[in-house]
Design a protein that fits this description.
Elements lengths: L1 E4 L9 E3 L2 H10 L7 E5 L4 E9 L4 E9 L5 E5 L4 H14 L3 E2 L2 E2 L9 H22 L6 E2 L3 E2 L8 E5 L12 H6 L2 E5 L7 H9 L3 E3 L8 H17 L1
Parallel strand pairs: 1-3, 6-7, 6-12, 7-9, 8-10, 11-12, 11-13
Antiparallel strand pairs: 2-5, 3-4, 4-5
């Protein structure tokens, strides 16, 4: 079914006028016709079922409105190279993370300054918006500017994908996952530094192993997110 992003209040029975990129893509690229069914997402948890009311004036009518609770997971991935970071943002949004805070780790592959960070944030938000439409996720995740580890406020239940001897199985934390906000930290390809691991230990974060194979950072993130998301729902 066709999907469109409209970041405003959605009300049953109302007629909304689309414009800009969303209208161009819907009416000129996809060539939507009058009466065609559509899903409208506002990025704040509401999604509406509707139909094309008048393609010439670019109007759609909302038939019913629904709401989905926001996911409690916060993802903090170390800054990755462009394609890998874009891929992770897209897929994490599809899974349904509530917030993404790119992490400036000591061994991060990418170095970033203030101007570049703002441009990246806009770019990542654009990717997340498209991922919402593709997946049907009604919540656009909050994507913050890249931050250093000590500047981020983590919840008490925070998991680190780690190649450590004391790493645990994620399934031993089922009760915490069901009842608390969750943060997931993913290190760079060179892993977190020893000083960063000392910081995690002081904060009583949980080190989690992801099996016997060594995974790329973006793969490790999606693996852990998927398992935690599933455990939180069942």
């Amino acid at each position: 079914m066709l999907k469109v992003f409209h970041p405003e209040v959605l009300e049953e029975g109302s007629i909304i006028h689309l414009n800009g990129k969303e209208a161009h893509h819907l009416f000129h690229v996809l060539r939507a016709n009058d009466g065609e069914k559509i899903i409208i997402l506002n990025g704040q948890g509401h999604y509406a079922e509707g139909h094309i009311f008048d393609s010439k004036t670019q109007q759609v009518k909302i038939d019913s409105v629904h709401f989905m609770e926001k996911n409690k997971i916060m993802l903090c991935p170390s800054l990755l190279k462009n394609r890998a970071m874009d891929f992770l943002i897209r897929e994490a949004t599809a899974i349904g993370v509530g917030k993404i805070i790119p992490l400036i780790a000591e061994r991060s592959e990418v170095k970033i300054n203030g101007q570049t960070a703002m441009e990246k944030q806009l770019h990542w938000n654009s990717i997340a918006k498209e991922a919402c439409k593709q997946s049907g996720n009604p919540h656009l995740p909050i994507i913050e500017m890249p931050q250093k580890l000590t500047h981020i406020k983590f919840p008490s239940t925070t998991f680190i994908a780690a190649l450590r001897e004391n790493a645990q199985n994620i399934f031993s934390h089922q009760s915490e996952i069901k009842n608390n906000p969750i943060a997931v930290l993913i290190g760079p390809e060179g892993d977190f530094s020893e000083s960063e691991y000392q910081y995690f230990s002081q904060k009583n974060f949980h080190f989690i192993h992801l099996g016997k194979n060594i995974l790329r950072s973006e793969t490790a993130a999606l693996y852990l997110l998927s398992v935690i998301d599933h455990m939180g729902k069942y």
